[in-house]
Amino acid sequence: MTTTTPARPIENAYAAGQLPRWAPLVMLISSLATFVIIFLFVQAGRPASEFNIVGAVLFGVVLYAVVLTTVSRLVEGHRRATDRLVTTLVALAFVIALLPLVSLLYTVVINGAARFDIDFFTLSLRNVVGEGGGALHAIIGTLEMTLAATLISVPIGLMTSIYLVEYGRGRLAQAITFFVDVMTGIPSIVAGLFAYSLIVMFFGPGVRVGIAGAVALSVLMIPVVVRSSEEMLRLVPNELREAAFALGVPKWLTVTKVVLPTSIAGITTGVMLSIARVIGETAPLLVAAGFTNNFNYSLFSDRMQSLPVFVYSSYISQGTDAQAYIDRAWAGALTLILIVMALNLLARIIAKIFAPKTGR
Amino acid sequence: MTSTAARRIRAKQRPGDRLFSGTALAAGALILAILAAVAAFLVIQGIPGIAADPEKTTLLEGTNFWAYVGPLVFGTLWSAALALLMAVPIAIGIALFISHYAPRPLAATLGYIIDLLAAVPSVVFGLWGGNVLAVGVQPFYAWLAENFSWIPFFAGPASGTGRTILTASIVLAVMVLPIITAICREVFLQTPVLHEEAALALGATRWEMIKIAVLPFGRAGIVSGAMLGLGRALGETMAVAMVLSASNVITFNVISSTNPSTIAANIALSFPEAYGLNVNVLIATGLILFAITLVVNTIARYIVNRRKEFSGAN
User: Fold this and answer.
1) A180 in reach of chain B (CB within 8 A)
2) Is residue A6 a part of any domain in this protein?
3) Residue A3 lies in a domain
4) Considering the domain boundaries, does residue B31 fall inside one?
5) Number of domains forming the structure of chain B
6) Chain B partners within 8 Å of A111 (Cβ)
7) Is residue A141 domain-resident?
8) Both A80 and A125 in a single domain?
9) Contact in structure between B131 and B223 (CB atoms under 8 Å)
10) Residue of B123, B138, B212 best to disrupt the A interface, most CBs of A under 10 A
11) How far separated are the first and last CA of chain B, in Å rounded?
């Protein structure tokens, strides 16, 4: 045996001065574990208190960020340390955004399940004080008003997008594009006030009717329909139009027989997404259509209840048996979320199945 | 070009063509008319409210219209500003996460999850904010009031219910998050790949690459996304109406039980019982809200459209 000890070869010269791949994960787990243990001791010290999982995770993540940055700064230098810190923060931002979503969906499902029963979908709130009753009148109102709004907005929105894509040139088209964008930003309650002022001209002061709600919803819906349809029409390849023109087909027939059928799936998707957007609108309906506890099938007389307003009024004006009102509000919220999610999902499926073949 | 350029051949005008293009034009013009009508009706119905006699209008409680609307405007701007303060950094983080950090196959799904937030109806956010969030953050407010009451914003005394303007702003922040994220994400994805690769080739770390290539390129997008979010936050009604316990005051204290209301929430809460001139007063406040959001959105759209021309992304 000689006494010479050969210099230990560097295993990977390119990885020198770098933290191993597993280091961040180990640090994360150990910092979380540290604070879980600390909080367990705190809880043991105060028997009445509950285990504070949110606090433990929060402090654990902060510790992780500090440890990772410090170690990385010592091993890898400050530039990589900053890089790692930012990576942590960016990932954290995403997790923070998920928290309200998860919490919201969880509470809506848990609390909504209490009254999510047959009665809820078969009864109205007529003469109901306290427990019982249902939201059928609100569901009918929502369906009628949303349908009416769709009937108003889709023709206007679709024709406008056809104008913008197929005919519009110059200042008018520019102005329409710009004001459609501006219209997207109209606060929903302002749309409600507009519909109210409009209807007051015909029906007299203080009147709330379903059609006013539909008008308010269409003010919100039209710009969404225009934007999505416009996008879809622009996706139609120009070669199709040129081929039709070359065969001597008039322009209006080219649009109705070639362009529209090609893009109809995308347009349908856009319309469904716009329905999903307005079906949850509360403020304009509260202002323009009012609220009621009775069935009302007529859009043109008397107040009309809708599901979002049902949720709102159950929550705001809780009666003697407050829990019954709160339960109904949660059940309404659950129904609303299910409807919106179903519409969204359906729209995405349609878009996926019938997506135009772009040839790439 | 030579001077012998052929005269443009005009297509034969058929009745069907005229009818169809006429209808399309009419629909486009109708949209301009609707927007004009919204403004006109609000002005017509609002002016009697602005000029209303304070003694005869119960809502004004003896003060004039401007004294009534002042705290509301303050509350609207203040809550929206707080919401943006919270939402913008997080939205930029999420957008970066989706565009530059998350594994490519996952990115679309993650984007969809954030879009889910936008699909939740505002009334559900209100219900959640009032019943869950307000209760959850109340101990935190109490702690703030105990330890940080020397900061004017947390002067306290902390609200017992947690229904303060800070809670309302948190809900607003969650609601505008998907809008800002969507725009930032789109702009970040449009960063020229050559810029990014050049930065990386010079030895920049990922964050340095983002700092010198992505963020300067996306600055206009971030600003306009924030402005669009601001427009939404200003006009949001239900989240505030259902979360906030409001009184007509101006205060910067964000955790006490006396909070300024916002224009939209005030309309929602007062309109169902309003009669006579009170209705006009509320419509006049709505007109002011309309004007504010119109200005904000116009500026935002102007920035977006100006950027479109030189980005080469389209």
Assistant:
1) yes
2) no
3) no
4) no
5) 1
6) 131
7) yes
8) no
9) no
10) B123
11) 28
Domain housing A262? 120-353
Within an 8 Å CB–CB cutoff, is residue B131 touching chain A?
yes
Q: What is the pTM of this model?
A: 0.85
Q: Which of A115, A137, A162 is the last residue of a domain?
A: A115
B120: domain range? 70-278
Question: Does residue B256 sit within a domain?
Answer: yes
AA letter at B309: E
**Residue corresponding to tokens 């101006």:** B250
Q: How far is B209 from B199, CA to CA, in rounded Å?
A: 5
d(CA A352, CA B28): 29
Query: Cβ of B267 under 8 Å from any chain A Cβ?
Result: yes
Q: Is B14 on the interface with A (CB under 8 A)?
A: yes
Cross-chain residue pair A333–B124, CB shorter than 8 Å: yes
Asked if residue B140 belongs to a domain, the reply is: yes
Q: Which of A283, A119, A110 is nearest to B128 (CA)?
A: A110
Q: Cβ(A60)–Cβ(A31) under 8 Å?
A: yes
Q: Is residue B183 part of a domain?
A: yes
Complex ipTM tops 0.90? no
Q: For each successive 10 residues of chain A (360 residues), what is the average pLDDT?
A: 55 68 85 84 71 76 86 84 88 87 89 82 76 83 91 92 87 87 87 88 80 90 91 88 91 89 87 88 86 80 85 83 84 90 87 63
Q: Which of B31, B93, B234 sits opposite A222 (nearest CB)?
A: B31
Place of tokens 């609707």: B34
Query: Which residue is closest to A348 within chain B, CA to CA?
Result: B112
Chain B residues 229-248 with CB within 8 Å of chain A: 231-232, 234-238, 241-242
**Among residues A115, A149, A173, which one ends one of the domains?**
A115
